[in-house]
Amino acid sequence: MPKLEFLDAGKKIEVGKYANIRKVALLNDVELYKGLHKYAFLPPPAGNCLGNGICGTCTVKVVEGMENLTPKTVRERFHLKNRPEDVRLACQCQVLGDVCVLTNHALNYDDLYGKPQQKAAPATA
Predict the structure, then answer these.
(1) How many domains in the chain?
(2) CA atoms within 13 A on the CB side of 46
(3) How would you class 35 by CB atoms within 10 Å of its CB: exposed for 0-12, middle for 13-18, buried for 19 or more?
């Protein structure tokens, strides 16, 4: 049976073929959603879509075993078009063999609203 390892959680879990990474994480108390992403009642990008591939908040970085995951879905290609190739949506990929991943970072204010603009100092004569 394939093994799915969550490096940041320190968990290595034996899963069935075609297991969904998001479901495995949630069933095994791996913190997949961090920061504001935990709350499904908030609209994306703050909350999460409960695994429907709409919000893009359940990203994982594949450290090993990219070839042991199903191909990227249309939703993944849309949400991850400007992200590195080793980033996947946990809700959209299934495990076919041994895989090792890191879960996403906590969402912070800058991620939501961008970096605050600094006002230019007034010109002095």
Answers:
(1) 1
(2) 7
(3) middle
